[in-house]
Amino acid sequence: xxxxxxxxxxxxxxxxxxxxxxxxxxxxxxxxxxxxxxxxxxxxxxxxxxxxxxxxxxxxxxxxxxxxxxxxxxxxxxxxxxxxxxxxxxxxxxxxxxxxxxxxxxxxxxxxxxxxxxxxxxxxxxxxxxxxxxxxxxxxxxxxxxxxxxxxxxxxxxxxxxxxxxxxxxxxxxxxxxxxxxxxxxxxxxxxxxxxxxxxxxxxxxxxxxxxxxxxxxxxxxxxxxxxxxxxxxxxxxxxxxxxxxxxxxxxxxxxxxxxxxxxxxxxxxxxxxxxxxxxxxxxxxxxxxxxxxxxxxxxxxxxxxxxxxxxxxxxxxxxxxxxxxxxxxxxxxxxxxxxxxxxxxxxxxxxxxxxxxxxxxxxxxxxxxxxxxxxxxxxxxxxxxxxxxxxxxxxxxxxxxxxxxxxxxxxxxxxxxxxxx
Length: 422
Known about the structure:
Elements: E1 3-7, E2 12-19, E3 22-25, E4 35-36, E5 38-42, E6 47-50, H1 51-59, E7 64-68, E8 82-85, E9 88-91, H2 92-111, E10 117-122, H3 131-147, E11 152-157, H4 158-167, E12 174-181, E13 186-193, E14 206-212, H5 216-227, E15 237-239, E16 244-246, H6 250-255, H7 258-261, H8 267-279, H9 283-294, H10 298-311, E17 317-321, E18 330-334, H11 335-341, H12 343-360, E19 369-373, H13 380-389, E20 394-397, H14 403-415
């Protein structure tokens, strides 16, 4: 039997196998081991297009449906819903299954054999404070995996998987804080790492696991609501029955959320915005909003906002160009503004880190290293704030998008009793 480790992420995904007893990630997109967690349904070719290729096709104007942040569907009310794909109603579980199947087939082609065992990554909490939804999310993912031919399915917390990957690089024992912040969740573990330990069972070494459903997509939404949506009328005034009121905000929240965005492109949403525009004082702002909906440009906005957020990790100011909505439209965004907009979310994340340390029953000074993985850990201010909680620890930057997948593969190798030589 052959095995793999599969990291199905909110923004990016990876899958790893063992070749010549060495765990490695499989090239998935452009020779790289990471693929964007996206599906584009090309209505002309009647094809499912995966990853960045699908995103590019949509942004280039190819007719079809783009779905991103697929993982957020797990455990949500959408699990009971169906969506129209190629004029057919398909359950969202089928959409997720198509993506996971693409990863599985890619790995099987690389391995030259059918995969029958898998360790799937999962956040500490798929959903905060709701154990029933959390269990539903894991059970749904397991059912998808088994339907695709995996005979043995197990799960590992994503930060623990990242720790297992990091453990292979250190010479001696460490107490480490693992920080895994991706697109959907921020997860933290405190684990005692022992390079000579090859057992799959590590319960005694794991001192604490905590997580919160706040990460990159939440950052993108807050930034867009603050900087872009006002240019489309959010916060502007309209005539009310007795006094002036703000235009309804719901459409703007849906416009900044990947899994609700496509619902805005139908005639009902256009009619609703037109009725608001009739009573709005700044009608030109609602004209822009109508243009976005008519041309299905909401995905362009989210893509531009995400890119801007990423660039602000490297430079202090970025011009967010919105000329695809209206000539010369755009807004300059400073890193300080980003930090201010996200301050409340950052504080909730820091509270979760503090909780992790407390539950581990250790003093911050006892932690030897902080291991960072996940794209959202590239934001300078959140790294600084987390590092300040354990100032004596050595800061280690892992592979932002590959550490979890590699660790899951290492875990699969140990669980399924294959020789280990990584």
